[in-house]
Design goal:
Blueprint: H1 2-16, E1 18-22, E2 28-31, E3 39-41, E4 44-47, H2 55-70, H3 73-86, H4 91-113, H5 120-130, H6 148-156, H7 163-181
Parallel strand pairs: 2-4
Antiparallel strand pairs: 1-2, 3-4
Length: 183
């Protein structure tokens, strides 16, 4: 019931939102008029246009959400939602989902910081400022969805760990998941 309610809320928000533009990256920018938080869901970027943000803050949050869309993070979230429905009793599913969501946020932060006008200090302040306005929608990717201090620390580190090192862990985790799930 909970996940279905979340999905239907997102679908309603998409239907009620006003199409602002169809971006060159093939996503739809929708204005939510304050009825839904700034977030991304598959090819939709839901933008709470009632926020009072500077142009730089707007650009940084947009770059963050665009990264979620480009990297197709909604597919991962949907997959883990289905896993949680089927394997609701298995604690590993919840731990893996938490790690995945955290990794998505780190990747989206890195994407936002690659923007030509991005500044780490300004972005860190924006994260801290906006973290209090967090809404907990679990089926969408949104700017406010991670542990803020951990995200700021990750931005400050010299990130030498490449994505392929994380990818090497996925087969091991999947094997462990199957072994412990089967009787």
């Amino acid at each position: 019931g909970y996940y279905f309610q979340q999905f239907s809320s997102v679908v309603k928000a998409i239907r009620r939102s006003r199409l602002h533009s169809l971006n060159s990256e093939d996503y739809r920018l929708l204005h939510t008029e304050g009825k839904f938080p700034t977030s991304s869901f598959f090819q939709f970027l839901l933008w709470d246009n009632t926020q009072t943000l500077s142009a730089a803050e707007t650009q940084q949050i947009m770059a963050h959400e665009e990264t979620h869309i480009r990297q197709k993070h909604s597919y991962d979230i949907s997959y883990f939602t289905l896993l949680k429905i089927v394997f609701w009793f298995h604690p590993l599913v919840y731990l893996l989902e938490r790690a995945l969501v955290e990794n998505h946020e780190f990747a989206a932060d890195a994407g936002a910081l690659q923007h030509p006008t991005a500044d780490r200090q300004t972005y860190s302040r924006l994260l801290a400022k906006q973290s209090m306005a967090s809404l907990q929608w679990t089926v969408v990717n949104h700017f406010y969805k991670s542990k803020t201090l951990k995200r700021i620390k990750m931005m400050e580190k010299n990130n030498n760990i490449r994505w392929y090192r994380y990818a090497l862990v996925v087969p091991v985790i999947a094997t462990l998941f199957l072994v412990f799930s089967c009787q």
